[in-house]
DNA sequence: TCATGTCGTTCATGATATTAAACACCCGGA
DNA sequence: TCCGGGTGTTTAATATCATGAACGACATGA
C-alpha cells in the first residue's frame, strides 16, 4: 500500500510485461498511441487519470488494482494483562495483544481513555477495517464527520480509511476492546 | 473494487468534505491552486496522476486508497448494545458487531458466559486467527490441550486451527470481547 | 448599509500531456 | 546483403491541463 514514491512508469511497464503485451499491442487495445506508453514508462510525462485509465482498460486492470498492486513453531497463546505492550501516546493507554507474534492478521487492543482524552486533531486513517465494543464509561466517536456517543455494550465497525477520532467527553475513564484488520500495529 | 465508472470529481469532493477541508485549504496544503480543485471536482479536466497525487497528499491519502475507497457502499458505523445480533447457543451469549454488514474482514463479538457455562465438548476449530480480552469475571481457556484461567484485562491470541474451548469455572458471569479474522460468523 | 471574509466558479495564458510520424535497433529469412 | 516486421524511442504540432487573478454569491458584524 506504499505508493509514496510509486514509480508509475516502471509499474506500468512491469504490469504490461506481466501480461505479455508490447507497447504497440497495448496502445492499440487501449486506444492511445505507442509513443504515449513509451513516454509514460520513462516517466517523461505524468499521464492524466483519464488516459492512464484508458491504458489500463487495455490490459485490463482497474486503477484501484494498479495502485494497490504490490511488486515488491508454536506461538504464545496467553497474555497476562501486565504483559500486554502499551503502545499508547500521551494519556491514552493502548495495550496490544500478542505484539511479539511475528505475523498477525489483526491488531487487538485494550484501550483506556481518561476523562477528556482524545486521539488528537490529526485524523487517523489507514487501510482495512476496524471495530470494537465499549466496555466501561462513554466515548464520543466521530467517523467521516458523523459523531456519536457510545456507552457500555455499544459497538462500532467501519472502514479505517474513513477519517475518525475518539474522544472521552466525560470525567470517568473509558475502556474499549478493539480489533483492526490488517493489523495497524 | 469498482472504479469502472469512477467519477473522480465527485469522489474527490466527497473525500475532501469528509475531511472537512475547503477547496482553498486543500489547495494550500497540496501546493496547487483552488481553481484546479474546482475544475477537477466538476470533471472539467482529468488531472494528471502527478497533480492528483499532490492533491491527495494534502489530505493526506494515497492514490491506492483514493481509488479503492468505496463511497457508495457507506455502511452503518454505530451499533447500540441492543442492536447487536445474539448468535449464541444455550446459555452462552454471543453478540456480533455489524452482523448486517455485507462484507466484513472480521467477526467482533461481545461474549457472556454465565457461571459454569462452556462452549461444549466438541472442539472448535476453523481457519484464521482469533484473540480477545477478558472484560469481567474469569474464564478458563484451553488451547491445544493447554489450559489457563484468565481474569479481567488478561488476553489471548491463537490460530483458530488449534482446538480450543472456553469454560467459566466460577459462579460470576464472565464477559469477553473477541475478534476473529477471517470472520467466523 | 457597508466592510470584511470565505465559499466555489470562471477565464486567459503559460505549461504540459498526447498525437502522428519518423527514427534507430534487432532478428530471421530470401 | 538486404528486406520486412518486430521492438522501443524521439520530435514537432496540437490538445489538454494548471495557474493566477478576478468574479458573484453568501455569510458575519460594525
Outline the structure in words:
2 copies of one chain form a homodimer. Chain A is an alpha+beta fold and 185 residues long. Chain A has 2 domains: 8-68, lambda repressor-like DNA-binding domains (434 Repressor (Amino-terminal Domain), Orthogonal Bundle); 81-181, Jelly Rolls (Sandwich), CATH 2.60.120.10. Helices cover 23% and strands 27% of the residues of chain A. Chain A contains 5 helices and 10 strands. Chain A has helices at residues 8-18, 23-30, 34-41, 49-57, 63-68; strands spanning 78-79, 85-86, 93-96, 107-113, 129-136, 139-143, 146-150, 155-159, 164-167, 174-181. The first copy, chain A, has a 6-stranded antiparallel β-sheet, with no helix packed on it. A 3-stranded antiparallel β-sheet of chain A has the order 7-6-9, with no helix packed on it. In chain A, strand 2 and strand 3 form a beta hairpin. In chain A, helix 2 (23-30) crosses helix 3 and helix 2 (23-30) packs across helix 4 (49-57). The radius of gyration of chain A is 23 Å and the shape is elongated. Chain A starts with 7 loop residues before the first helix and ends with a strand. The mean pLDDT of chain A is 79. Chain A binds a DNA duplex (30 and 30 nucleotides) through residues 22-24, 32-39, 41-42, 45-48, 51.
